[in-house]
Structure formats: C-alpha cells, structure tokens
Design goal:
- The chain has five helices and nine strands; from the N terminus they run ββαββββαββαβαα.
- With 182 residues, the chain is α+β, with helices and mostly antiparallel strands.
- It has one domain: Nucleoside Triphosphate Pyrophosphohydrolase (Alpha-Beta Complex).
- Strands 3, 4, 5, 6, 7, 8 and 9 form a seven-stranded mixed β-sheet that branches.
- β1 and β2 form a beta hairpin.
- The longest helix is centred in the C-terminal third of the chain and has 16 residues.
- The chain is globular, with a radius of gyration of 16 Å.
- The termini are far apart.
- The mean pLDDT is 90.
Length: 182
C-alpha cells in the first residue's frame, strides 16, 4: 500500500496525493479505473484474491486499480491489465462515475472511476474459454478468471448481487448496455 495515489475533486481535477492506505482508511476521493474485456457475447470476470485488503473473493471486471501520481489513466489501465491478467488489449474509456462504499472493517472506497473496455484479442475461430489458459493472472490479485455470457451475468447481478464487488454492480450494467449499443 505504498503507492502515492491521486486525490481529486468531484470534477476529477487533481488536488493532491496520498498513500493508498490513507486514502482507503479515511475515505478520500481519488482517481481509479476499471477495465472490462469482452468477446462476442461474453465478459471476462475475475474473482479477487481472497486475501485482498477489501472485496476478497468477490467477482469483478477483468482488472481495476489506480493510476500513480504523474501517470495518465489510460497508461495505468494498460499497465495493470498486463500485470494483473497477463493481457495486452486495445481499450478505450467509455464513461466515468463516482462511488462511495464503507466496508465493515473501517475501510472506504471513494473513487472517481474511469471505465475502460476492450475486445479480447484472439485468433479467428478461437473460443475465449480456451484463451483463458493463455493468460497469466497474478495470484496476489486474482483467484480465478472466468468468461460469462452477458445474459447469465445479467441474471446473476439480480439474483446474487452480494457475490460482486460494489463498483462492479454500478458499472457492469452500463458496460453491457454500451457493448450492446455498438
């Protein structure tokens, strides 16, 4: 938790920096990103490592993190996608939102979250399920990776929201709509 993260105002203007620990202990608004990867009608999900400092064992998008001070958000998103999932992909920012969540252990998430999405790069005719074996998830970040059909994900978001990270519950429906509107 040593990284110096970017603190922002509600308009995403940088107002300072703080340590990752301080940001999450005090609930300071900071810049973050979430990366969604899809292929056809499926989305790549990660189950967060069980020993993560929050949301361990919950399902979320392919990767999420924070840009470091002096690092632009797109570069940070591409860097972390490679570090967490072992994947290089063309991504683009599709929207941003602010959310606040208090975890039971006195830890907070208060993020200005930039949402990126991209299509999974694979060979013509290759199924994404087999492609997961080509990925190299970082075990400190990810317990497991799974492809899920959009329709099944929609059902699970309604039937079992407690299995998903809080930011994912907000952003996934918007990402699904964006993909379908293409």
């Amino acid at each position: 938790m040593e990284d110096s993260l970017i603190t922002v105002d509600i308009y995403n203007k940088q107002i300072g920096t703080a340590s990752k620990g301080e940001i999450h202990e005090k609930g300071i608004l900071h810049r973050a990103f979430s990366v969604f990867i899809y292929s056809g009608n499926k989305m790549l999900l990660q189950r967060r490592a069980y020993d993560k400092y929050h949301s361990g064992g919950l399902w979320a998008n392919a990767c999420c993190s924070h840009p470091r001070d002096g690092e632009d958000t797109m570069s940070a998103a591409k860097r972390r996608l490679k570090e967490e999932v072992g994947l290089e992909a063309h991504i683009k920012e599709v929207f941003a939102f602010i959310y606040y969540y208090k975890f039971a252990k006195g830890m907070y998430e208060y993020e200005y979250d930039h949402v990126f999405m991209g299509e999974y790069p694979h060979e013509e005719g290759e199924e994404p399920e087999t492609d997961v074996r080509r990925l190299s998830p970082n075990p400190a970040e990810i317990e497991e990776l799974e492809w899920i059909e959009f329709e099944e994900l929609e059902k699970q978001l309604i039937a079992d929201p407690g299995k998903f990270a809080p930011w994912f519950l907000i952003s996934a429906p918007k990402v699904l709509k964006t993909i379908r509107d293409f």
